[in-house]
Design goal:
The chain is mainly alpha-helical and 100 residues long. It has helices at 3-8, 18-28, 31-51, 58-99. The two termini are 38 Å apart.
Amino acid sequence: MTSSQKSVLPSYETDNSQASKLIRKSKESPFVPVGMAGLVAVVSYGLYKLKHRGNTKMSVHLIHMRVAAQGFVVGAMTCGVLYSMYREYLAKPKELKKDD
């Protein structure tokens, strides 16, 4: 193979553990751990409230908890996309001006 073909091929990391993937993803987009933590918090709260739900039907309780969990994760994803767009389009032009 020529050197130009080697640069086209993707490079693979030697350490592919779950922890290293999570750390890499956290550095790329910091709202992923926020979304995961929010999901765990909503599920924990839902399990706690399951015991003290009163006259509420089980199906209604589960639907409310699912909507809350999805809402938190979608909100974290939206914030992450907005943050990435900010870094890409607003923060980079300032860096380019410093180099000139």
